[in-house]
Design a protein that fits this description.
With about 120 residues, this protein is mainly alpha-helical. It has helices at about 1-20, 25-50, 55-60, 65-80, 95-115; strands at about 20-25, 85, 90, 90-95. α1 (about 1-20) packs across α5 (about 95-115) and α2 packs antiparallel against α4 (about 65-80). The protein is globular and about 40 Å long. The two termini are about 15 Å apart.
Length: about 120
């Protein structure tokens, strides 16, 4: 569990450094965001996947993206100071859902990379 928390903290720190729309207010906020994100991923995500299994089957797994966005939104909701703002991609302003979707994909990619290394 500690390894997952450290990976989440490093992921959020790297993405906040690379992308201006992901931010945290202090190092305590960063640590809290890593802990909350890890707890949500380990506890809430499996429950949501079981609850929404029929919808996920019908949509051929695409509903899991919505679950990922919901987990990330809950993390930004529960940790004050950890924000993911709207993103502008190629001149197109994305709304909050698509910004969270992009951030969720980036977090998943970086966490997968760290999981391979560690």
């Amino acid at each position: 569990m500690l390894k997952s928390i450290i990976i989440s903290i490093l992921t959020i720190a790297i993405l906040a450094w690379l992308f201006p729309n992901i931010s945290y207010s202090s190092s305590i906020t960063l640590i809290m965001a890593g802990i909350v994100l890890t707890l949500l991923e380990k506890i809430v995500r499996p429950i949501l996947k079981i609850l929404f299994l029929p919808i996920n089957v019908v949509t051929l797994g695409l509903f899991s993206l919505v679950i990922n966005v919901l987990i990330l939104y809950l993390a930004t909701y529960f940790v004050p100071g950890f924000t993911i703002d709207n993103v502008v991609v190629f001149g197109v302003a994305l709304n909050q859902f698509f910004s969270l979707l992009l951030a969720s994909a980036l977090i998943g990619f970086v966490q997968g990379f760290f999981a391979l290394i560690l």
